[in-house]
Each structure stands twice: as structure tokens, then as C-alpha cells.
Amino acid sequence: MKLLLVEDEERMAQALCEILRIxxxxxxxxxxxxxGLAAIESNTYDIVILDVMLPGMNGYDVIRNARQxxxxxxxxxxxxxxEIDDKVEGLDxxxxxxxTKPFLTKELLARLRALCRRSFDITDGTVSFGDIILDTxxxxxxxxxxGQSVRLSEKEYKIIExxxxxxxxxxxxxxxxxxxxxxxxxxxxxxxxxxxxFTRKKLLFIGAKxxxxxxxxxxxxxxxxxV
Length: 227
Known about the structure:
The chain is α/β, with parallel strands linked by helices. Helix content is about 45%, strand content about 20%. It starts with a strand and ends with a strand.
């Protein structure tokens, strides 16, 4: 699970990063709104933890800009403000949840778990799109129309999961490389092509009508027609 923390209070940011990494989250930190927005726009994070009072651009404007671009990544806003109007503004700006400082670590972690469940629309341990169903605990990919299934490798699973979570969006090769391999270089771009081919073969193997379509010069999109 990859998290983005946008927080300008250095001591708090360091403490949160340490806590989250102990809980096995992968965390990246930025300390101003402009850098935070640029990171969110990469669309490579599962959840964003966003402070309200930030240099460069406040948290409300950061989330408004992200939502206007169609980015659906769940956002938990952090703030020292406890007034109801501030909470309403945060939620109306596009935040999914709101936590007032100071807060208990166990409450933060509980809210992150809730956002994680919500972001994947998991009701029975699966995510789905078109005629495919992905079991998030066993990495089993199934076709809903014929019952055929196949177990995915870790990278194939991450590709399908990321495409399903971002259904309706075109994901670039750069986004996939950052999300799945964690950093950006030419060798990782080549890996995207290789594992995309493997994943497409798995879709064909189970007889799914759902396809991973290449959008020339842009990236990849999950599509399902005639279902």
C-alpha cells in the first residue's frame, strides 16, 4: 500500500512516516501544496494524507485541483482546525475523511484501513470490472461468464488491480512503472511492456471479453465491450 503524506510540520511528518512504515505502508512525503499536488497528479498512490495549512497552496485547493482532473485517490485531511465549517469545506473540496490534530495513532490507522477498503470497493474480498473478478487475497483472476480462473503473479495482480481501481482512466506507462516497481527508469518501462503482455495472455486464457487496450502515445485502459 503506497501512501502520500503532504505535511509541512517536519517533526509531525517524520513521526507519521515512521509509524506508517512500521505498519508496512510505503510512504512518500512532501512539505508544500504545489509539490503535493504534482505528486497526486502522478496517480500512483493508494491514499493521500493531506494537511490543510500548507505553504504554496493550501490543502483545500490541492484536493479541488486533483478532483477537477478526475483523480479519485482517497484523501484523508489533517488539520488543527476543529470548527464544523472547516470540516465541511474539506469534505466539499473532495476529501473522503477528516482528522483533527492532535489525534491518536490507532484512530489514524483505523481511518486509513477504512479508506483502503472503500477505495477498492471490496465487499467480499474481490474487485471486478466487466466480466472479470479479482480475488484480492488469493490473486485469482476469474471470468464471471464461464467460471474459468487463473492465478496471477504478483506483478500481474498489481497491474490488473491498478487498472480496475482506475477504471475509466488511461494509465501511462510511467504511472504503472512507479506504482508497481516503485521508481522510474527505462528498464522499468520495458518491464511494463513485458508484464502487460503476460497479463493479457491471462485474460485470454480465462476467455474474458475484458481487454487491456493500448492507447497510442498515451498508455493503457481496461475496456469491456459486448458484456
